[in-house]
């Protein structure tokens, strides 16, 4: 019988153990007495990253040396795609319990890493050429089953340049979501399915016209999946789908969806995370740094923080995405309305 390929499972376990350790260390969840938030945080000023970017560039012009591409990004992306598809080919040999364990520990971790590889690539941080970045994004999209990379590129650009703008920034839960998913049970159900809401919300909030690269994304994905299904069988496809679902729900890395912009400290709308899971998520945790300078690849964002500590050390940040998830679920004052919006 062919065995599953050798995987960096021990490394993943080590990183996850470090995250859990940080959760234990910082698990001093504050008891909140405030009533649940019933409306968004409406503001009139511009998002904070524009002004901070100007100030940092004026004070530290050498920051421009960090601009450019990450030459290793393309290799990491292709490797992650190859591992995920290879595991999918052979996982049908496993019984249900090891199937679930491998799917959670390896599949969901790689699926989330690919989400964030696509995030980097859609900022054109793998190649200087936009076309080359787009092609790599299509490849990175393959194990995620559904074609989304090119649509994500469009919507994510809007999220950056119109952060919090009502009717434009589709990263923010709709009022219907906020009203329906209340309290611990409501937030838990929403959290379990947040990947579905992230995928469906743009269609209702700001539908866009299909462009050629989105069509290429659709055709390429359908063609490859049509070839892959007969080879891997339904067990392989179920592995990829379950990896996708777990990556966006009951997985420590999914805490980044909450940590980035949910308001846990009134007056601040973007938050960074400096924990160990950055090692497997392309440093997406450095989120204030990323929004300040989207043209700096994740691999160099720690250098940006070291270069301009006076702009980041005084901001609220996190050391555990696991704790962020727990606080989101259990704090009564934090709801799906806990986001900053602009008219």
Keywords:
single chain, 343 residues, mainly alpha, two-stranded parallel sheet, two-stranded parallel ribbon, 3% strand, globular, disordered N terminus
Q: Can you walk me through this structure?
A:
With 343 residues, the protein is mainly alpha-helical. It has one domain. Helices cover 55% and strands 3% of the residues. The protein contains 14 helices and four strands. Residues 1-7 have low confidence and may be disordered.
Number of helices: 14
Q: How large, in whole angstroms, is the Cα Rg? A: 20 Å
Proportion of residues in β-strands: under 5%
Average pLDDT reading? 92
Widest beta sheet: strand line-up: 1-4
Largest sheet: 2 strands, parallel
| Helical percentage | 55-70%
Please give the oligomerization state of what you see.
single chain
Number of domains: 1
DSSP E strands, number: 4
| SS class | mainly alpha
Helix-strand sequence: HEHHHHHHHHHHEHHEHE
Give start-end ranges of low-pLDDT stretches. Answer: 1-7
N- to C-terminal separation? Answer: 61 Å
Using the alpha-carbon principal axes, give the shape.
globular
């Amino acid at each position: 019988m062919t065995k599953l390929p050798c995987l960096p499972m021990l490394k993943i376990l080590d990183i996850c153990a470090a995250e859990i350790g940080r959760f234990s260390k910082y698990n001093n969840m504050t008891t909140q007495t405030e009533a649940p938030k019933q409306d968004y945080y409406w503001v009139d000023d511009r998002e904070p990253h524009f002004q901070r970017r100007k100030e940092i560039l004026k004070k530290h012009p050498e920051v421009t040396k960090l601009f450019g591409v990450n030459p290793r990004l393309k290799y990491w992306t292709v490797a992650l795609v190859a591992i995920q598809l290879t595991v999918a080919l052979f996982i049908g040999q496993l019984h249900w319990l090891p199937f679930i364990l491998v799917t959670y520990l390896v599949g969901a971790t790689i699926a989330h890493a690919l989400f964030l590889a696509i995030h980097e690539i859609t900022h054109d941080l793998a190649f200087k050429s936009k076309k080359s970045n787009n092609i790599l994004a299509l490849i990175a999209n393959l194990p995620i089953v559904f074609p989304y990379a090119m649509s994500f590129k469009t919507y994510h650009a809007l999220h950056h340049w119109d952060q919090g703008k009502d009717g434009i920034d589709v990263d923010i839960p709709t009022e219907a979501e906020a009203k329906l998913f209340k309290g611990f049970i409501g937030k838990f159900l929403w959290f379990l399915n947040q990947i579905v809401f992230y995928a469906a919300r743009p269609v209702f909030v700001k539908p866009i016209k299909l462009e050629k690269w989105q069509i290429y994304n659709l055709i390429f994905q359908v063609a490859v999946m049509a070839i892959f299904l007969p080879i891997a069988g339904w067990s392989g496809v179920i592995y990829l789908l379950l990896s996708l679902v777990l990556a966006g729900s009951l997985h420590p890395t999914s805490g980044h969806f909450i940590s980035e912009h949910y308001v846990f400290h009134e007056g601040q709308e973007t938050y960074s995370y400096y924990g160990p899971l950055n090692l497997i998520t392309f440093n997406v945790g450095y989120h204030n740094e990323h929004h300040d300078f989207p043209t700096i690849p994740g691999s160099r964002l720690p250098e940006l923080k070291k270069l301009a500590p006076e702009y980041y050390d005084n901001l609220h940040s996190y050391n555990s995405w696991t704790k962020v998830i727990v606080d989101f679920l259990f704090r009564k004052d934090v709801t799906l309305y806990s986001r900053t919006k602009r008219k």
